[in-house]
Design brief:
The protein is mainly β and 115 residues long. It contains no helices and six strands. Strands 1, 2, 3, 4, 5 and 6 form a six-stranded antiparallel β-sheet that branches. 19% of the residues are buried. InterPro entries: Churchill_sf (IPR038543), Transcrpt_activator_Churchill (IPR009508).
């Protein structure tokens, strides 16, 4: 992975977890080919952690279209924990983020207090 191709390494993205794509506002250009081609996403690698089909880890490398220099490796995880879907993203280019969404119709964390 290359820190010279990005403006900020691992920027905080709050709860915006993207399975794939590129955060082009953070992309400076390829330092190897000295150009500004958009990163190209090559085939992703999906693996299960612990054999549980509800947990997955996806690696999506972003490479330069011209010289195939690896700009970043996008890591995205998804799992179901209790009654919540848990998402995480870690990428030099796209940043880092975490999110948790209830699988119930009404999220108990969002319930208004009665008193």
């Amino acid at each position: 992975m290359c820190g010279g191709c990005v403006e900020t390494e691992y920027p905080s993205r709050g709860n915006t977890c993207l399975e794939n794509g590129s955060f082009l506002l953070n992309y400076v250009g390829c330092v190897e080919s000295v150009r500004f081609p958009h990163p190209q996403v090559v085939e992703s690698e999906v693996s299960l952690q612990g054999g549980d089909p509800c947990e997955s880890l996806v690696f999506v490398p972003d490479v330069c279209k011209n010289c195939h220099h690896m700009i970043a490796r996008h890591e995205y995880t998804f799992s179901v924990v209790d009654d919540y879907q848990e998402y995480t993203m870690l990428c030099l280019l796209c940043g880092r983020a975490e999110d948790s969404i209830s699988i119930l119709p009404d999220d108990p964390r969002q319930a208004a207090p009665l008193f």
